Amino acid sequence: MVRGSSWRDHLDRAWFSRPGVRTREAVAAAAGLLTPSWCVGCGAEETDLCEECAYDVRLLTRDPYRAEAAAPALPVVGQTEDQLRVLPVIAAGTYGTLLSRVMLGFKDHERIPLDRVLAPALGRAVEAALSQLCTEAPLILVPATSLKARMRRSHDPVPHLVRRMEGRSALRGAQLAEGMLAQPPRAAAVGMLPGGGRQKGQKGRSLADRRRRLTGAFRVTDRGREELPGREVLLVDDVLTTGATIHALYELLTEAGAEVRGAAVMAAAEVPRGGDASQGSGLE
Ligand SMILES: [Zn+2]
């Protein structure tokens, strides 16, 4: 092809012209392709998650397990013989593994395609929670939008993952209920956000204190007041640490008339023994 006026040359020139480059950059950025691409697990190039690491994530989340024992701030919901029963939580995997890196890549670095492994992983936890904890198709409630995501007007990680599960038979007719919980702007503004205690400054506070602050960080909307009474609810969140967020939500939703059956989370943090000042507050 030597003719200077051929469409190919035009295309070439357009492709490498400055507006062309800008357009491609914009398109690539929108598609998440501009981020240098390497496996969040092992650093292999040209992929956000290599086959081996994707396989490992599946292994790490293959058997959802009951995680409430490691979360000292979960609400007590009953008593069996001489033991207190706390709200059950089912986790797909453990935080602090490859799973956390994939979650961070998805949440904080907006590597949306990672939802291909995360949605099935969370789906397994939700499926287990539905079959073990719920008797009818419950409402699935997701605690809150992260402030960061809201400020960037970008995707909201957990609802995004639940939406990807919708339509799967594993969901047993459960539906993602949105618009039933809100955060008063003031609470969001001062960063009193849920998310399992990963924010700085929360560590030294007692669990009871944290929970009081967290309760103030949410409110049930008018729609929630209408639809929640008498409904079964399953909470879904990304990480379980102390359980203070879930406790706060449990109280709010129960007060609104919902029957909170439990929670499903992507990952449960393993509580460091004796290393966390928020433990041993006497709340247990
Ligand atoms: Zn890898």
Automatic annotation (TrEMBL):
All copies of the Phosphoribosyltransferase domain together span: 216-268
Domain of life of the native organism:
Bacteria
* Gene3D superfamilies attached to this UniProt entry: 3.40.50.2020
Q: Which family does it belong to?
A: Belongs to the ComF/GntX family.
Name of the protein: Amidophosphoribosyltransferase
Q: Give the source species.
A: Nesterenkonia lacusekhoensis
Q: What is the lineage of its organism?
A: Bacteria, Bacillati, Actinomycetota, Actinomycetes, Micrococcales
